[in-house]
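Worked Example 4.2. Consider the chain below.
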Amino acid sequence: MNEKKKRRWPKILGITLLVIVLVLAIAAAGIYLWMRHTFGGNPASNLTPASGTEVDIAGGRISGGLDGGVYTYLGVPYAHADEMFVRAQPVEPWSGVREYTEYGAMSPQSSMFGSDGQDNNCQNLNLWTPALNDGGKRPVMVWLHGGGFSSGTANEAQTNGRNLAEKEDVVVVTVNHRLGAAGYLNLSAYGDKYADSANVGMWDVIDALQWIHDNIEAFGGDPDNVTVFGQSGGGAKVMTLMATPYAQGLFHKGIIQSGATETVGPVLTSEEVSLRITELVLADLGLNESNIENIQSMPFSDIDAAGTRALQQVANEYQIESPFGGSYSYEWEPVVDGDFLPTDPVTEDGFADAGRDIPILIGSNLNEWAMMTGGFGLNENMSEADVLSRLQNTYGENAQAVLDAFKAAYPNEAPVDALAVDSMLRVPLLRTTAHKADQGDAPVYSYIFTYGAPSCFHGAEIPYAFANGEAGAINDMMSAIWANFARTGDPGIDTLPDWPAYTREDGATMILDTESYVANNHDLALLELLEPEFDY
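Applying the procedure from the previous section yields the following structure tokens:
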């Protein structure tokens, strides 16, 4: 090799490394922006106050704004939290008229999503309704945002309830509540004051449901027809509400969108694990029984950082596998304490008793983790041979069987979609669905959303459920399904085939797309290949 070529190689290597770094940076930025979009970014806009929006609620009189004829109220307090880790109290009555046209605070949470607008006193909700005080008895749809139990906000543009309220003649409510350490640090061993701390984030949600029960008739809603719906962590919150006796009578139906992993949703935190987390957090912060009240004056960022370290240590100690595999990890969750939560939402052989009479609509998206698994940017025209070659990298000699099983399970999808098919959420959701069906006291309806595959990613269905997607058949269909289930407990609409309730024997699942159809136990063979320990 001559000297000129020798000098060229370091330059080529440097350029190659730079390209790799740039690609990784772009990918990381894409994941970050997707997570912000799905779990708490993209804030919605405030409103201009409007006359004719005054309404009397418990405590006083409020006014809001009008958004294209839809009465809108933003940041309405349903309770008030003076201290951290303590259950919120009712809002004190007031005189005069309070105006609610600006979004309220969201919970303290990880700095990944920024700290602006975060406050422990985040017990507020947003509400959209077509009419006031008209006795309309409209279905009430209460949205619980995603982000696990650790992050997110109700103040997102994609979950603005204006279009859904107008199109489907329903009342839409989105709820802010405490998250992460602020919602689930178990200080119950440190005095009666903190008796509810392990589940104070879910107590906030229950307080919101109580406010809705007491006030929603003034907004044209029916307090006896309330549906709680949520995606990802929001779906897990719906499961949690179905497992606590303290929420009984405050809601009547549930919609669970992509709301389960093996360790979040169907199964929550044991009291043993929660107390170990607390032990580590307090040791990290230099706190004990004698100075526990100092926690009230500490910056939340310090508490959050100590919590992050404690969660990782507990994951390592208890060998709790990450949902994405390859490591141990753990997240903040409600605590199964024997009182607030008598059991996990889904037990080994059943479903929680508190939610026996609650019908549910439950499902996931075909390519939940497309961002993680390479589904974004896949060429829809990729040849079957190239797809098979890619599958061999993951499944080896089972690659052909996986491809054949995928084609049998999803005959309307292109072979390339097999490269990003989800099983991580599908398996625990299927188990949840089957156990709820086995219980037999209320129907459960199953769906898989495939529109946009192979980029039918985690959260892709959210704007369509709110009628906020691009105009067209999918936008109309999804919002109509969600609203009809809220109205009647049956998700079927005129433009769909007959949609039977799910049973373990028939496994009826509606495949939601431009050409929707019912499939029966369609993907069991595929899941057995994708998840060797598959069991439901």
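The radius of gyration is 24 Å. The longest strand covers residues 221-231. Compare this with Example 4.1 before moving on.
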